[in-house]
């Protein structure tokens, strides 16, 4: 673009053509739920601006796909994949969308997702929504893309967009990024605004970038970061936020102390993942990192406490979003009623058990909620903080996820194996996943996990590992 060899229009048209050829036909990845009808017009205006005034920065003219739970005040809908919100067009952009437009991004479209960000049923198939159907893994369409940011991950992995935005409450960036061979950044809670995003739980929700390289993800994170007065965590926003793509160096791990966390879920289930972790540790050592292995981290009780928090917060947070965004339904009870009244279309494969459980919960003043919130944060944050302090660590590392499982609409997700995302998700601290290996061609990632607002340091470590370690293998998709 700087040299004039490529324009925003030509890049946008390339992706639109590729979506038509690959996403909706061919292997039918089904990652894009809606195309922005104004994408080419936006790209054209940005090309004119570049020619007449100059570039706004590295995002100028770059196509971005948004998860379909992120508000846009344009001709696209914001539905979280649910028929209950079909036709919903919010009155204003989410704060991060405002940031993207100001940076010169082309909003290319919206990505399919696990409906309601996978907070509808206990028997769901990740990547399925009643509006978008089933998204398929970019590396094997018979396998699951993980969720809930399924379409965002698959679209980037299959080169249907330059980069994408996902959201995470508990693994919804890390898991789909890992099983689709991507870099995914789960920011520290509060670094990225949550306003204008259909919520699950304010104590864990965050948006974050998904990209094919660490540098691309860092550029995108810089673009969406900013202090938003409408977000209750605005006062918690750091005083100075760096350009996350600056000062990336292959020497970043030299002298860094990295702790190996082996107490994640499924630790004994997949020795093949342990081989990938061992290879990663060897690369870290070759880059000058000091390795502390293993770490003893106590997370007993964390998951159950967080589960109760999500049920309570979903009911209240969703109500507040629906009212503020002038949605067609105004409460969780109305969503439940809609799904029941339209069962054949809205619930052909699985039910709404999580929604029904959330509806039984009381207000956020209930002692049960307050205790669960305190417990979940205390256990998760102490686990990370104590490990970092006791062993004088700069970060933890662990496998992100086992390879993708087969999609199964009869039994739902069969996602056994390694999973390390919950610790960072529940604590609200930062994590970065990047490709580290593959098993029979199916990607496996590793995650750097750090303390509060350690995002920039983790990105630097991920970049150094990326440059010296396993190189991402693109999926074998042809037009």
UniProtKB/TrEMBL annotation:
Q: Which InterPro entries does the record cross-reference, listed alphabetically?
A: Amidase_dom, AS_sf
Q: Specify the domain of life of the species encoding this protein.
A: Bacteria
Concerning Pfam families, the annotation shows: Amidase (PF01425)
- The segment(s) forming the Amidase domain are 11-458
PANTHER family attached to this UniProt entry: AMIDASE (PTHR42678), OS04G0183300 PROTEIN (PTHR42678:SF34)
Tell me what this protein is called: Amidase
Organism name: Woeseia oceani
């Amino acid at each position: 673009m700087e040299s004039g060899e490529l324009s925003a229009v030509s890049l946008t048209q390339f992706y639109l053509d590729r979506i038509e050829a690959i996403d909706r036909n061919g292997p039918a990845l089904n990652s894009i739920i809606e195309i922005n009808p104004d994408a080419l017009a936006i790209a054209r205006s940005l090309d004119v601006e570049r020619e007449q005034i100059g570039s706004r920065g590295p995002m100028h003219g770059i196509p971005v796909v948004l998860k379909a739970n992120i508000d846009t005040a344009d001709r696209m809908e914001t539905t979280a994949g649910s028929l209950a919100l079909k036709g919903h067009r919010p009155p204003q952009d989410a704060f991060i969308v405002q940031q993207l437009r100001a940076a010169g991004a082309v909003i290319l479209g919206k990505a399919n997702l696990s409906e309601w960000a996978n907070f509808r049923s206990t028997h769901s198939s990740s990547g399925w929504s009643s509006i978008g159907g089933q998204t398929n893994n970019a590396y094997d369409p018979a396998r699951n893309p993980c969720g809930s940011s399924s379409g965002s991950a698959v679209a980037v992995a299959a080169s249907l967009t330059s980069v994408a935005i996902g959201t995470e409450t508990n693994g919804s960036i890390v898991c789909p990024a890992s099983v689709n061979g991507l870099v995914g950044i789960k920011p520290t809670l509060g670094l990225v605004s949550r306003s204008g995003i259909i919520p699950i739980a304010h104590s864990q929700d965050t948006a974050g970038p998904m990209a094919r390289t660490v540098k691309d993800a860092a550029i995108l994170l810089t673009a969406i970061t900013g202090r938003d007065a409408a977000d209750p965590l605005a006062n918690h926003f750091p005083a100075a936020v760096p350009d996350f793509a600056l000062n990336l160096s292959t020497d970043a791990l030299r002298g860094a102390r990295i702790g190996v966390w082996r107490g994640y879920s499924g630790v004994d289930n997949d020795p093949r993942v342990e081989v990938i972790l061992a290879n990663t540790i060897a690369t870290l050592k070759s880059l000058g990192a000091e390795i502390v292995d293993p770490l003893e981290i106590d997370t007993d009780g964390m998951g159950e406490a967080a589960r109760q928090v999500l049920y309570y917060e979903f009911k209240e947070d969703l109500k507040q979003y629906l009212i503020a965004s002038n949605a067609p339904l105004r409460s969780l009870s109305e969503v439940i009623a809609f799904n029941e009244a339209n069962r054949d279309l809205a619930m052909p494969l699985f039910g709404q058990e999580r929604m029904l459980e959330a509806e039984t919960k009381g207000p956020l003043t209930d002692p049960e909620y307050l205790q669960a919130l305190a417990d979940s944060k205390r256990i998760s944050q102490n686990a990370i903080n104590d490990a970092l302090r006791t062993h004088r660590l700069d970060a933890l590392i662990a496998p992100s996820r086992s390879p993708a499982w087969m999609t199964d609409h009869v039994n739902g997700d069969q996602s056994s194996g390694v999973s390390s995302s919950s610790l960072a998700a529940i604590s609200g601290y930062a994590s970065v996943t990047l490709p580290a290996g593959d098993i029979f061609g199916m990607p496996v990632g590793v995650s750097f996990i750090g303390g509060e607002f350690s995002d920039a340091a983790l990105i630097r470590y991920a970049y150094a590992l990326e440059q010296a370690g396993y190189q991402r293998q693109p999926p074998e998709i042809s037009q």
